[in-house]
Write a structure and sequence with these properties.
Number of helices: 2
Order of helices and strands: HH
Radius of gyration: 16 Å
Distance between the termini: 42 Å
Structural class: mainly alpha
Shape: elongated
Helix content: over 70%
Length: about 40
């Protein structure tokens, strides 16, 4: 929770940059999981 409160202190530009980084890592994880599932089914 403390980290979320610290996020609120960031400027909008910095928040957007951080959210973009988080979205990138989430997309990477989803892609990795999907590829693993495809390889296991093959």
């Amino acid at each position: 929770m403390e980290k979320l409160r610290l996020l609120d202190t960031l400027e909008d530009k910095d928040k957007q940059s951080l959210y973009h980084i988080i979205d990138t890592f989430i997309a990477k994880k989803k892609l990795k999981d999907n590829l693993s599932n495809v390889l296991q089914e093959a």
